[in-house]
Amino acid sequence: MDRSREERAASYFQCTVRERAVFEAGIKLAAVYHQFVGAPVSASNVESLERAIEHGVMVQPFVESVSVHIHRESLRRKKNEYDYQSLTGDMLDVSVVIKIEDVRVKGRLRYVEEIKYPLMYVERIESL
Question: pLDDT tens for residues 55-89?
């Protein structure tokens, strides 16, 4: 990103670089959840859907890496020609790594059985 453009953008954030990196990770995970939950999914398109989500996240600012896994055991066979399955939050396991300046944050979205919820959380923060 053009340095002067990033400096102008950064001036809007009244927080530390660390806090901004955590914020960016949360934005990326929320975008995945709210853009893709409800998308039609099946054994025949699950890999391409995973890659499409990854590629969509990778073009966003500060993303160093992203990994998307859709749990195959949640997929079922079609019952008839009108039947299809939609992606749900409990099927997703997403990791995103954000790097801003000397801070790297790993955020995670995954279904946590213990609380029965697709939780988005900070898995790790590193100072480089």
Answer: 999 999 999 999 999 999 988 887 888 878 999 99
What SS3 state is found at 36? Answer: helix
> CA-CA distances (angstroms) from residue 68 to 50, 55, 56?
5, 10, 11
DSSP state of 44: T
Evaluate the CA torsion angle 33, 41, 105, 5 in order and state its sign: negative
Question: Is 3.30.565.10 the CATH number for 15-78+86-127?
Answer: no
CA distance 103 to 121: 17
Q: Is residue 2 very low, low, confident or very high in pLDDT (cuts 50, 70, 90)?
A: low
